[in-house]
Amino acid sequence: MSTGEPSATSTRRTIVAVFLAGVSVFLVLYETQGLLPAIRGAYDIDAPTASLTVSATNVAMAVFLIPFSVLAPRIGHARQIAGGVVLAALLALILPFMPSPELLIAVRFLQGVAIASVPATAMAYLSLRLPAQALPGAIGVYIAGNTIGGLSSRLLTGLAAEVLGWHGGLAFTAVISLVFGLIVVWLLRHDLFTTARAVAAREATEPDANPSTTESGTSTTEPDTADVTDAGRPPRRAIIPLRSGLWRIYLTGFLCMIVFGGSFTMLGTRLQQDPWYLSEGAVALFFLIYLVGTVVTTYYGRLATKLSRTSLTLIGMITALAGAGLTLVDDLPVIIIGMSLLTGGFFLGHTGASASASASRPGVDSTRSAAIYLTVYYLGTSLGAWLSAVLFTDFAWPGVVVMCMTSLFAVLILTLTGASIGFKKRS
């Protein structure tokens, strides 16, 4: 729903604010991923411990996504977004000054908590503030912001570390994130105060009621007629919709992210060892491979009109398996090709699983289903980052490849043995 018909200027301001919010928080989400060798050396810790600077943030993000989605209507979507982007950037500013690895990991966990407030809230905020016809494009812009932020998190930090050292690289990224965060606060300034008044008014006048309050303070207690049965009651929906077969979709996202998060987490460590000894800046350039995912997700919709999700997932997993195998060759051009194939295959699996988790189906709350998918998705990142470090320590890069191939084969089995789940709303 939208809150009336906002002006074109208001619509643009809202879209830009949410776009920059995505860039800001994802800019600091993966900032330590390309610096793990430097962090390991600075604190004299092993690779699995250093990888916790990636895992801790993703675990916190996964754990707090659903709580923040519940909290947002109470404190205001705009206030939650603004608070999250500023807090994440401020924590990033103090990160380079942590005297021990324990404190470094603790601050990274707190960053994950702050970051979670944005993806848990952004799409709901857009749906409240924008007219229906502007919503699909706005969500696309927000997702683009996430992608740009995630890529820049790895790329800019590594390039800056080349000149300023790893402390300076983290500080550089933090400053950019804070600048974007302050711009977000300025763009959302009207909704920040409106939301505060609306919440105060609701608590003062309706202490026992629990209406749904919009960002402009308009409350409604009318149920959505699409979700009401003939008896006047909302249909019963599963809290965790596993019986519908969605557990296969959730597990697909989890396993795919083990592959993607784990491979990229240890890629830099591999390239900074014999026989290449690449610098942080050179390693950072390898994260441009992430753009392959942007291409795949852009064209996925067209592919889905010709092939089923099952077929696309199978193609993606086979492609990723071939890519993982190529990365075993100790040749930089071959490694680039292998990681590109692995990335493209991952995004074929992830995009299809994400769309299926969000698709409408009887007895399933699609919003809750999407939130569950994101939760297990980021848990997969956390496990992949840590497990890849453990395997790399004991078995070098082949250990990481075995982990990736095992996960990819598991997705193949899930896809081949599971019932087909489409994208269209079922009658």
What's this entry about, in short?
With 427 residues, the chain is mainly alpha-helical. It has 14 helices and two strands; from the N terminus they run ααααααααββαααααα.
Question: In terms of topology, how is this protein built?
Answer:
Elements: H1 8-29, H2 36-43, H3 47-75, H4 77-94, H5 101-116, H6 122-129, H7 135-187, H8 189-205, E1 212-213, E2 219-220, H9 242-271, H10 280-285, H11 291-304, H12 309-326, H13 332-358, H14 366-417
Antiparallel strand pairs: 1-2
Termini gap: 22 Å
Oligomeric grouping of the chains: single chain
Number of helices: 14
Q: State the helicity in percent bands.
A: over 70%
Task: Please provide the count of β strands.
Answer: 2
The main sheet comes to: 2 strands, antiparallel
Q: What's the average pLDDT?
A: 83
Tell the overall outline. Answer: globular
Task: Explain what you see.
With 427 residues, the protein is mainly alpha-helical. Helix content is 74%, strand content 1%. Strand 1 and strand 2 form a beta hairpin. Helix 4 crosses helix 8, helix 9 runs antiparallel to helix 13 and helix 9 crosses helix 14.
